[in-house]
């Protein structure tokens, strides 16, 4: 049987080998999920919720060990792994508190012997191809509400977060979720392709735009529920009335957190010319203060790049920016030693002629561009094929709302960034994808409305 080799991106060391699924095993697991889903749907919601409550408790009990697994296979700094797991607890609480309300049968008409109701029925078998950068967050946004609403889940974690995916399955089964109701599929693109071929009722994917397009093309003739959470090239505008140091400290964190490997990382910064120089100076100072090093150390802020191939992307963006006149203020190169390391990189004097300002970096890299007014900033913020998040820094709420109301983005921020709330929908414009997770809408995404016409005779 083929084995998946899992390496630590910080050291290059082999961590483990795991058997890879085949087209045959994927098919068998899909059939088993289909058979198990009916009984799971019939299981009372209260019983399903009890399983998720036990799952939450198991995460709390094993939090440090689970964080260590995530750090070992992704290179994420250990304190950020703990942050992710602790943050997941609040999301689980939201789903538990909201599922009854979000899926309650609605009576929308009752008159003269005729009743009309809307029922929220589960989709059935949900396929989830998940991501490596926030495997608990991104996965939990899908499989928790999917399970709560009565679906079976075929879960393919990223091959770069396989051990985390297996840990999720172990804890769910220990919490009472039947084996066939939540099933892990191990492997890379070939396993994902085999999963798409199965009889499924919904496909929820988080990853690159290119892969998302290929999935959409493959599933188009089958007309099933499709949700694609793709990339971003997230902009922020710092107005002339903002405090340059406070804005710089906040945005440095927004750009470099998780080593810049977030779809909602700040990737483009536009600064009003009146405070540009002061902002740039404070931004560079903030980034210089971030500790790069061993991801298992509590002091480390910048960890390893999870995928070695991304180093080539970062190198290419640096070379392109320098060739087109950008001013390199910090970094711009790989770091020595085993593993996948890149220095935190800051450019000024950038333009939209540069790949750095148009294509995802997905690493510790940022471009800062000077602008003369709000109109120019807005034009540049919308000059992108993506539309995931965008932000404005100013003490003037009216001014911030005026700009953000016209930004083509699924989420907008005033004086904050790189923030996700379970109470708000997570969605995007353009090449950032289709569909949504989180909020009560993100619970209903795993159901289909069924219309009931009931006449009393």
How would you explain this protein's 3D organization?
With 457 residues, the protein is α/β, with parallel strands linked by helices. Helix content is 40%, strand content 22%. The protein is built from 14 helices and 20 strands. Strands 12-13-14-11-10-16-17 form a seven-stranded mixed β-sheet, sandwiched between helices. Helix 3 crosses helix 4 (78-103) and helix 3 (63-74) packs antiparallel against helix 6. The longest helix has 26 residues, at 78-103. The protein is globular, with a radius of gyration of 23 Å.
- Which percent band covers the strand fraction? 15-25%
Spatial strand arrangement across the major sheet: 12-13-14-11-10-16-17
Helix percent reads 40-55%
- SS class: alpha/beta
How can the largest sheet be summarized?
A: 7 strands, mixed
Q: What's the total number of strands? A: 20
Radius of gyration: 23 Å
Uncertain parts = none
Number of helices: 14
- Specify the overall morphology: globular
Rounded mean pLDDT score: 97
Distance between the amino and carboxyl termini:
63 Å
Topology:
Elements: E1 3-7, E2 14-19, H1 23-42, H2 45-61, H3 63-74, H4 78-103, E3 106-111, E4 114-122, E5 125-129, H5 135-148, E6 152-156, H6 162-174, E7 182-184, H7 189-196, E8 202-206, H8 209-219, E9 225-229, E10 234-238, H9 244-256, E11 266-272, H10 276-288, H11 309-323, E12 327-330, E13 345-348, E14 365-371, H12 374-381, E15 386-387, E16 389-393, H13 397-404, E17 411-414, E18 429-430, E19 433-434, H14 439-444, E20 447-455
Parallel strand pairs: 5-6, 5-8, 6-7, 8-9, 10-11, 10-16, 11-14, 13-14, 16-17
Antiparallel strand pairs: 1-2, 3-4, 4-20, 9-19, 12-13, 15-18
Helix pairs in contact: 1-7, 2-4, 3-4, 3-6, 4-5, 9-10
């Amino acid at each position: 049987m083929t084995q998946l080799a899992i390496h630590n991106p910080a050291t290059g060391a082999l961590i483990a080998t795991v058997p890879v699924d085949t087209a045959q095993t994927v098919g068998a697991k899909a059939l088993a999920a289909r058979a198990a889903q009916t009984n799971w749907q019939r299981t009372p919601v209260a019983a399903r919720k009890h399983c998720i409550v036990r799952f939450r408790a198991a995460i709390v009990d094993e939090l440090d060990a689970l964080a260590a697994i995530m750090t070992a296979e992704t290179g994420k700094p250990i304190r950020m792994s703990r942050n992710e797991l602790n943050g997941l607890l609040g999301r689980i609480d939201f789903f538990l508190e909201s599922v009854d309300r979000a899926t309650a049968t609605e009576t929308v008409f009752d008159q003269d012997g005729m009743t009309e109701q809307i029922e929220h029925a589960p989709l059935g078998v949900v396929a989830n191809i998940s991501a490596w950068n926030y495997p608990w967050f991104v996965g939990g946004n899908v499989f928790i509400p999917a399970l709560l609403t009565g679906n079976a889940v075929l879960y393919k974690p990223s091959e770069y977060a396989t051990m985390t995916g297996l840990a999720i399955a172990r804890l769910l089964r220990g919490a009472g979720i039947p084996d066939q109701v939540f099933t892990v599929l191990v492997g890379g693109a070939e396993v994902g392709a085999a999963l798409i071929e199965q009889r499924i009722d919904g496909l929820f994917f988080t990853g690159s735009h290119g892969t998302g397009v290929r999935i959409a093309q493959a599933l188009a003739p089958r007309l099933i529920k499709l949700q694609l959470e793709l990339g971003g090239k997230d902009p922020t505008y710092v107005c002339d009335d903002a405090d340059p140091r406070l804005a710089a400290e906040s945005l440095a964190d927004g750009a470099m957190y998780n080593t810049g490997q977030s779809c909602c990382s700040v990737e483009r910064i536009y600064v009003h010319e009146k405070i540009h120089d002061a902002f740039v100076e404070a931004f560079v100072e903030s980034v210089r203060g971030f500790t790069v090093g061993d991801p298992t150390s509590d002091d480390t802020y910048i960890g390893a790049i999870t995928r070695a191939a991304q180093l080539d992307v970062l190198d290419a963006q640096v070379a392109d920016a320098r060739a087109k006149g950008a001013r390199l203020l910090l970094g711009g190169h790989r770091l020595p030693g085993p593993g996948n390391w890149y220095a935190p990189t800051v450019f000024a004097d950038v333009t939209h002629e540069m790949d750095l300002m148009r294509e995802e970096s997905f690493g510790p890299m940022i471009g800062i561009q000077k602008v003369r007014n709000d109109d120019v900033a807005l034009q540049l913020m919308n000059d992108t094929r993506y539309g995931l998040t965008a932000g404005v820094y100013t003490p003037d709420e009216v001014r911030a709302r005026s700009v953000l109301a016209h930004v083509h983005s699924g989420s907008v921020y005033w004086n904050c960034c790189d923030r996700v709330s379970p109470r708000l929908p997570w969605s995007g414009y353009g090449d950032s994808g289709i569909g949504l997770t989180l909020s009560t809408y993100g619970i209903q995404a795993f159901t289909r409305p069924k219309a009931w016409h009931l006449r009393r005779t």
